[in-house]
Specification:
about 350 residues; 3 domains; about 60% helix; mainly alpha; Serine Threonine Protein Phosphatase 5, Tetratricopeptide repeat; 17 helices
């Protein structure tokens, strides 16, 4: 075998040994003082063993082999770690040299559709107004394996979830309102915008005929469940849905009503205190059924009573709306009978 090549290979394998030791030391140093889960430690052990095997195979071919084949195999194992490292670096940095697709290019392949979408993405209100004249606004983009097929109104709202440098709030809202007024399907847009649009625009969608009982954006259940949240803004939108006809006694996939869902999320949390205002509204103004029981016997009343017990134990001061709801339950004859039979 060639002496110079042999020396180079031994030097490379020496560097591999040093790198392996450094990685092992770095791992133990970074995990000192914290619990390491089984998966993390398991993968590290596998990588360490694989590194030892690769180095050992390279050394074995180089030490015991006398042929050119042995030299080639030794070179393969010697430079394998370097090749893996370079491939990882390439995968991390090469995409930065590629031009990222715009949102319009991602969702629309048809040139005429893309032109309108680009104007929407650029926040060019005047161009959008001109381009949509005489156009079918509810046509959707080409179905994409990595994305949804959106109409223009849905696309305008989607831009709010991943705003780019050229995103501007006022032009975006102006375009959304323009598309609603021009006849875009409001029901398709309502789940898209339930968490992304201000309340006045949600009202515009509902006034334009959006179905408040449509499915959610994240889950296929009723939209009301996605509207319920911890902030006043979120809960005002949930109330608006109910005022516009959302059914408040529907159930989600877990078998919970909106009352039960809201109470389970709110619990004794200080951040979710406003949710008890929504719950009180559903009972007092929307006549939501708080007597419904799941097959396992859990009801809104039992959930609320458990929360009350926990609040007492943890000395949590609950909001006034919680105690108003609790009073309604305690004054209900059926609920008193139910508690007395427990």
């Amino acid at each position: 075998m060639h002496p110079l090549i042999t020396k180079i290979l031994w030097a490379v394998m020496g560097l591999n040994v040093i790198a392996l030791v450094v990685v092992a030391i770095a791992f133990f140093a970074s995990t000192a003082g914290r619990n390491v889960d089984t998966m993390e430690s398991g993968w590290m052990a596998i990588l360490f063993i694989a590194g030892v095997v690769v180095i050992a195979l390279g050394a074995a071919f180089l030490h015991f082999g006398k042929s050119n084949f042995s030299l080639i195999m030794s070179g393969f194992f010697a430079f394998l770690p370097l090749g893996i490292l370079l491939s990882i670096l390439a995968s991390n940095y090469l995409p930065s040299f590629k031009r990222n697709l715009s949102m319009a290019e991602f969702y629309y392949q048809d040139k005429s559709q893309r032109k309108i979408a680009e104007a929407i993405e650029n926040g060019d209100v005047a161009a959008v107004k001109q381009l949509i004249q005489g156009q079918e606004l509810n046509i959707t983009g080409t179905p994409h394996k990595d994305g949804d097929s959106l109409n223009y109104l849905q696309f305008a709202i989607r831009l709010r979830s991943t705003p780019t440098e050229k995103f501007q709030e006022e032009p975006n809202l102006a375009i959304i309102k323009m598309l609603i007024a021009a006849g875009s399907n409001p029901t398709l847009a309502l789940p898209e915008g339930i968490r992304r649009l201000p309340q006045d625009v949600i009202r515009l969608l509902l006034d334009a005929g959006a179905d408040p009982n449509t499915h959610g954006f994240v889950k296929s259940g009723p939209l009301l469940f996605e509207a319920i949240g911890q902030t006043k803004t979120e809960n005002d939108i949930a109330i608006l849905l109910v005022q516009k006809g959302a059914r408040c006694n529907v159930r989600n996939a877990e078998g919970n009503t909106p009352l039960m869902f809201a109470a389970l999320n709110a619990g004794t949390s200080e951040r979710w205190q406003d949710t008890w205002r929504l719950i009180r509204y559903l009972i007092e103004k929307a006549n939501a059924d708080y007597t419904f029981k799941r097959p396992d016997g859990v009801s809104f009343s039992s959930i609320t009573q458990s929360i009350h017990k926990k609040a007492i134990e943890e000395k949590v001061i609950m909001p006034a709306d919680f105690y108003a709801v609790l009073k309604i339950i305690e004054n209900d004859p059926e609920q008193r009978i139910s508690r007395n039979t427990l």
